Amino acid sequence: MVDVQHWLAAFPPGVVYLIVAGVIGVESMGVPLPGEIVLVSSALLAATGVIQPEWVATAAAAGAIVGDSIGYAVGRRGGRPLLERLGRRFPRHLGPAHLARAEQSFARHGVWAVFFGRFVALLRILAGPLAGALHVPYRRFLLANVAGGLVWAFGTTYLLFTVGRAAEHWLKDLSWAGLVVAVLAGLTSTWWLRRRARRLAPAESPDDAEPVPVSSDR
């Protein structure tokens, strides 16, 4: 992650924002890319003053919302065969077991899987295409998509930005106790969000999961 941050620092701010939006957008379409790593690295870079956190968060939110919407349209047109082709192309990330788990999440939680799925790597990639393939009503999908994208992008960016600035300040003042408190606060917040999101996943293991159809009225 440090290497990614240094790599981003070599670009002008405008290019960094485009990279953030582009990587997260393509990931949200259903292509496995390190969107979260790029966002975290950019937020920490913003803490150094090189780029602005509000533009990092805006770029991330835009990429997430637009990418998910494009993924929804592609999934709606291509259906399950498209997801299966993606699984064959990226078996380590989107194989049959992964697809089954994602379908289970949609079957149990409907569009909430889109909202909280933004905090889970598997659903972050599959939410848009899978919602389209399963004919989830677009208005409900869009509402969950926008809400999840904004909370994830701005929450992650400003959490890490605040922790990074506090760490820099306290390191200068040699206040290690304060640094530990800030880091623990950030980790606790992140843990709570991820724990809440992972409750969407089915209890059974990926190998045992079976696809479950989702009705369009959820």
Automatic annotation (TrEMBL):
Main location: membrane
InterPro entries, alphabetized: DedA-like, VTT_dom
Parts of the chain that traverse the membrane: 6-26, 111-134, 141-162, 174-193
Topology class, membrane: Multi-pass membrane protein
A matching Pfam family: VTT_dom
Localization (cell): Cell membrane
Keywords: Cell membrane, Membrane, Transmembrane, Transmembrane helix
GO cellular component: plasma membrane
Domain VTT: start-end pairs: 41-159
Top-level taxon of origin: Bacteria
Protein family (similarity comment): Belongs to the DedA family.
Protein name: DedA family protein
Organism: Micromonospora craterilacus
